[in-house]
Design goal:
Layout: E1 3-9, H1 15-23, E2 41-47, E3 50-56, H2 68-82, E4 85-91, H3 98-110, E5 114-119, E6 140-141, H4 150-158, H5 164-178, E7 198-204, H6 210-218, E8 236-242, E9 245-251, H7 258-261, H8 265-280, E10 283-289, H9 296-308, E11 311-317, H10 328-339, E12 348-350, H11 359-373, H12 379-392, E13 397-398, E14 401-402, E15 404-412, E16 417-423, H13 430-444, E17 452-457
Parallel strand pairs: 1-3, 1-4, 4-5, 5-6, 7-9, 7-10, 10-11, 11-12, 16-17
Antiparallel strand pairs: 2-3, 8-9, 13-14, 15-16
């Protein structure tokens, strides 16, 4: 079992940088601006043989009730309750402050084991002598940025690691010794997509309710929410169960127009984190504001996801705020299929993250979109479909010669990708490809996923050789 370790401290002492160092990757945004981290971020990591469940936290501040800083502190307190051990980080250059004293008092009340570390000890900087007064013994001198003192952190964590870890390692070594080449499987094992967690991202413009839906799905206040736009900065990941299916759910920062983000380093990093979550995802829920649906930025976001080849579901949030709901979804469906033909037929679900309306339907739509994204169709079935499609609408003639499609195959899934074989296929109009695409969606229930086409032309035996 991994050791649940929460990294706690004042704003801008280097918690996220240490979090990334222990995680072995850039899992949290790091910037000189205080208060960048707002939600608690958790990742599993293996650092120097230690199995860890790392929790990055927001700065711990004494602030007015209801303020963003106060809500961030509540998130930190939740992380402290969840953790088995606490890594209390102070700034060696700033010394022990009144804020550090307040945090130390809260950590002592928690009753959890605490490791005290003084960050930014590069050069000749030493941990402040007054750190002893915090009640956690001598501070470990580290520099998360320069990878200094990490061996001392490992030694302190090893003393707190669950006793079973060492026994598990011995058992793994024994298993490896007993394993022989005769035990190797003779054939490749095909893994069913249902046996692996579904990676699901929530994406949309700022303040459309992504974090509220994230919390509603998880059944807890996992992400910071409020009327302020742009509260979420990091992409936050949490495990979720959709029926019998394991899901890795990602809450992301809102995507604004490029012109508004350009030059804003922190926002650019948030956008990069969101784009990384989209690339990591299998399926993406695009959040649409019911009071201002399908604005240009919504279409840009949906097109980006389609180009990335991810399954897509549209959640029309804030449905409870609409006064005239009659026929609303039908009108939005018509608009969606007209403006975004590349994802025509994608599920469109009316939801309210505040009341929970539509959540069950949304869950079912995600499962169906994921099924379509992983679908495979046999070559024989595809060519029966192709023959019927060609009979209904023949291919156009180009320069007096008709484009000829001989047959088609599916070369891969995730997303479903097809190859057409024939003559002059490079000249096949986009409209005809769209006709085949829409036919495939209807015939094989491939709604909620982009479809990819490639063409392969037959060699012309009459072409003159150069």
């Amino acid at each position: 079992m991994p050791l649940k370790l929460a990294i706690v401290g004042r704003p801008n002492v280097g918690k996220s940088r240490l979090f990334n160092r222990l995680a072995g990757r850039t899992a949290a945004i790091v910037h000189d601006t205080p208060g960048v981290t707002r939600d608690r971020q958790a990742v599993d990591a293996d650092y120097e043989g230690l199995s860890l469940r790392l929790i990055d936290t927001a700065g711990f501040e004494d602030a007015a009730t209801g303020s963003i800083a106060n809500r961030m502190t509540k998130q930190t307190m939740t992380a402290i309750k969840e953790a088995e051990a606490l890594l209390f980080l102070i700034d060696a250059r700033a010394g022990v402050t009144a804020g550090d004293q307040i945090i130390a008092q809260a950590l002592r009340k928690s009753g959890k084991p605490v490791i005290l570390a003084a960050n930014k000890c590069e050069g000749r900087v030493e941990p402040p002598a007054e750190a002893y007064g915090l009640g956690f013994g001598e501070a470990i001198a580290i520099s998360a940025e320069h990878n200094l003192g990490m061996e001392d952190i490992v030694a302190a964590l090893e003393a707190l690691a669950p006793a079973g870890d060492a026994e598990d390692e011995k058992q793994e070594e024994a298993d490896e010794e007993e394993f022989s080449e005769d035990d190797e499987p003779q054939e490749d094992v095909v893994v069913n997509y249902l046996d692996r967690p579904l990676r699901l991202a929530l994406v949309g413009r700022p303040n459309v309710g992504k974090s509220s839906l994230f919390n509603q799905l998880l059944g807890e206040e996992r992400s910071l929410t409020g009327p302020e736009a742009g509260l979420t900065r990091d992409s936050i990941t949490a495990p979720w169960k959709a029926g019998e299916r394991d899901v890795l759910l990602h809450d992301t920062a809102g995507l604004r127009k490029k012109a508004r983000v350009a030059g804003e380093t922190l926002e650019e990093m948030s956008v990069a984190s969101t784009l990384e979550a989209i690339r990591f995802a299998d399926c993406v829920i695009v959040m649409i504001d019911a009071t201002a649906p399908f604005e240009k930025q919504d279409l840009t976001i949906a097109d980006l996801i389609a180009r990335e080849g991810r399954a897509i579901v549209f959640a029309v949030n804030k449905w409870d705020l609409l006064e005239n709901k009659a026929g609303g979804i039908s009108r939005m469906r018509e608009k969606l299929d007209r403006l975004l033909p590349q994802v025509a037929g994608a599920p469109l679900i009316a939801t309210s993250a505040r009341t929970g309306e539509g959540i069950d339907r949304l869950e079912g739509a995600v499962m169906e979109a994921d099924k379509a994204w992983n679908s495979r169709v046999s070559t024989a079935t595809l060519n029966r479909f192709l023959g019927e499609a060609l009979q209904r609408h023949a291919t156009p003639a180009i320069s007096g010669r008709r484009v000829r499609i001989r047959y088609m195959t599916q070369r891969k899934a995730r997303p479903p990708s097809f190859t057409l074989f024939g003559n002059q296929l490079d000249a096949l109009p986009e409209a005809y490809l769209r006709y085949l695409q829409n036919g495939l969606r209807e015939a094989f229930d491939l709604k909620g996923t982009p479809l990819r086409f490639s063409v392969r032309n037959s060699k012309n035996p009459y072409a003159t050789k150069k």
